[in-house]
């Protein structure tokens, strides 16, 4: 395995989209084309599928130095109401594009720290959206909660509004690691919010763990996993730490890079962590995610309904996902669009009556074909190519796959590719074989985290 790590531990995307953000063709994108794409997709899919909404709530009271999210650090809670008013105004701008009432199927509150906001302010925001939509009978509403500031009132308020899923960011219970990433978070805090969520009735509780953090050892990782098992969350995200300090504003300079585990050490954290999770009853779903058998994520995997987008893995899909808030990304299947990345500019543009997108990408036919195959690999670990609907680099892609087949990462049968159990850890590498935009324009500088 170590020789494979040396061979395949290269910078690569996480494929929450294709094309990936660095390869968006901004020259052919415009806000007007984005709006046309939204209108097209809404007409095609609202009645049958409904839509998804992602709301980016960017405020945090302290900077976690492992975090690569777009956020604003402040202790001033007076920012809450003006920001939420802007989000509702942005939503109204999208409503103006629709020819009928949206059917809301998925809603996710991400951040930042959604639980930075008071329960009452979150309720005002959500009721403002709910009065403009029809809520699907099989809706999936979820939010991210910080164990240190999530109150029982947060959990009860959001439950009463239809939320049934919550993910708590744990990362690691080792105090030395917590200090390095500026996230001091005792087990007792996580236990308290997890038990509250269960008592209230949440049916989908997730804990986020991260491997590859500074000073992290297998002993610390094993301790964290075993402590987590005392609470038995329904699902787990077991993320590889993405070290991207060159990206403006992510704040990943809070520790010495020499404190990070080596590629070999990091792979051991993943392999031994995965083995332990499976021994404890969790099943690997897609990439980075594990769940118990009863959880919707596993059920969607076995029924081939698993989906992946900018919210990560989801147990259902909609063709249109509207991202609201500073830096939020939207997806109409035919196009992507990202909002401006500062709170002030976001609020200013919304006040001017404009959808605050700053960049995006309109997918061409080739993009759509490649996107489908990469999505298949990321979600189902397999895909089949139609040789009559291929691309010039297909032969080169298959040469790379043959090398991966020799390494037992994939199995090939004609134009069918299946990622093996051994190859799961290298899913991103397999997907990269088909990333035509990156293949044709290899980056001259480091723009992605390492795949291992």
TrEMBL record:
Catalytic activity reported:
coproporphyrinogen III + 2 S-adenosyl-L-methionine = protoporphyrinogen IX + 2 5'-deoxyadenosine + 2 L-methionine + 2 CO2
Q: Where is the Radical SAM core domain?
A: 45-279
- In which residues is [4Fe-4S] cluster bound? 60, 64, 67
What's the cofactor?
Answer: [4Fe-4S] cluster
UniProt-annotated binding residues for S-adenosyl-L-methionine 1? 54, 111, 144, 329
Q: Which domain of life is it from?
A: Bacteria
The UniProt keywords, alphabetically, are: 4Fe-4S, Cytoplasm, Iron, Iron-sulfur, Metal-binding, Oxidoreductase, Porphyrin biosynthesis, S-adenosyl-L-methionine
- Entry annotated with the keyword 4Fe-4S: yes
Tell me the route in metabolism or biology where this protein functions. Answer: Porphyrin-containing compound metabolism; protoporphyrin-IX biosynthesis; protoporphyrinogen-IX from coproporphyrinogen-III (AdoMet route): step 1/1
Entry binding sites for S-adenosyl-L-methionine 2: 66-68, 112-113, 171, 183, 208, 242
Which residues are in coiled coils?
none
Instruction: Check the record and name the InterPro entries matching this protein.
Output: Coprogen_oxidase_HemN, Coproporphyrinogen-III_oxidase, Elp3/MiaA/NifB-like_rSAM, rSAM, rSAM_horseshoe, rSAM_sf
Q: Indicate yes or no for the key word Cytoplasm.
A: yes
Cofactor stoichiometry and binding?
Binds 1 [4Fe-4S] cluster. The cluster is coordinated with 3 cysteines and an exchangeable S-adenosyl-L-methionine.
Q: Name one GO biological process term.
A: protoporphyrinogen IX biosynthetic process
Q: Give the E.C. number(s).
A: 1.3.98.3
The record's subcellular locations are: Cytoplasm
Enzyme class (EC, first level): oxidoreductase
Q: Which GO terms describe its cellular component?
A: cytoplasm
Q: Which PANTHER family match?
A: COPROPORPHYRINIGEN III OXIDASE (PTHR13932), OXYGEN-INDEPENDENT COPROPORPHYRINOGEN III OXIDASE (PTHR13932:SF6)
The family line of this record is: Belongs to the anaerobic coproporphyrinogen-III oxidase family.
Query: What quaternary arrangement does the UniProt entry report?
Result: Monomer.
Q: What is this protein called?
A: Coproporphyrinogen-III oxidase
């Amino acid at each position: 395995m170590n020789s494979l790590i040396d061979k395949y531990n290269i910078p690569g995307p996480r494929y929450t989209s294709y094309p990936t953000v660095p390869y968006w063709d901004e020259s052919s994108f415009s806000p007007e084309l984005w709006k046309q794409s939204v209108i097209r997709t809404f007409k095609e899919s609202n009645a049958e599928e409904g839509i998804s909404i992602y709301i980016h709530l960017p405020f945090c009271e302290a900077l976690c130095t492992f975090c690569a999210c777009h956020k604003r650090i402040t202790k001033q809670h007076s920012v809450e109401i003006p920001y939420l008013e802007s989000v509702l105004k942005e939503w109204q701008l999208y409503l103006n594009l629709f020819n009928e009432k949206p059917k809301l199927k998925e809603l996710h509150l991400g951040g930042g720290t959604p639980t930075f906001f008071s329960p009452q302010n979150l309720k005002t925001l959500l009721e403002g959206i709910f009065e403009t939509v029809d809520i699907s009978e099989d809706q999936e509403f979820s939010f991210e909660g910080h164990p240190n500031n999530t109150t029982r009132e947060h959990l009860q308020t959001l439950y009463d509004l239809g939320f049934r899923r919550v993910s708590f960011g744990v990362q690691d219970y080792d105090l030395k690691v917590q200090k390095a990433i500026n996230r001091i978070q005792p087990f007792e805090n996580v236990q308290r919010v997890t038990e509250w969520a269960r008592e209230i009735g949440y049916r989908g509780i997730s804990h986020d763990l991260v491997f590859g953090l500074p000073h992290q050892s297998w002993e610390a990782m094993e301790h964290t996993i075993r402590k987590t098992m005392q609470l038995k969350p329904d699902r787990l995200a077991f993320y590889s730490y993405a070290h991207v300090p060159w990206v403006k504003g992510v704040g990943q300079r809070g520790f010495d890079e020499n404190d990070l585990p080596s590629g070999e050490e990091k792979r051991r954290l993943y392999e031994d962590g995965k083995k332990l999770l499976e021994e404890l009853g969790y099943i690997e779903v897609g990439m980075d995610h594990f769940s118990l058998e009863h959880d919707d994520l596993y059920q969607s995997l076995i029924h081939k309904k698993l989906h992946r987008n900018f919210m990560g893995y989801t147990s259902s899909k909609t063709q249109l996902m509207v991202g609201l808030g500073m830096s939020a990304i939207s997806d109409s299947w035919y196009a992507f669009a990202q909002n401006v990345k500062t709170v002030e500019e976001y609020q200013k543009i919304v006040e001017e009556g404009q959808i605050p997108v700053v960049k995006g990408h309109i997918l061409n036919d080739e993009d759509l074909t490649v996107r489908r195959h990469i999505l298949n690999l990321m979600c189902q670990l397999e895909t089949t190519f139609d040789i009559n609907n291929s691309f010039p680099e297909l032969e080169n892609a298959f040469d790379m796959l043959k090398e991966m087949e020799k390494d037992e990462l994939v199995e090939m049968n004609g134009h069918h590719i299946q990622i093996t159990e051994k190859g799961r850890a290298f899913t991103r590498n397999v997907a990269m074989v088909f990333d035509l935009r990156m293949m044709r324009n290899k980056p001259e500088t480091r723009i992605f985290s390492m795949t291992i």
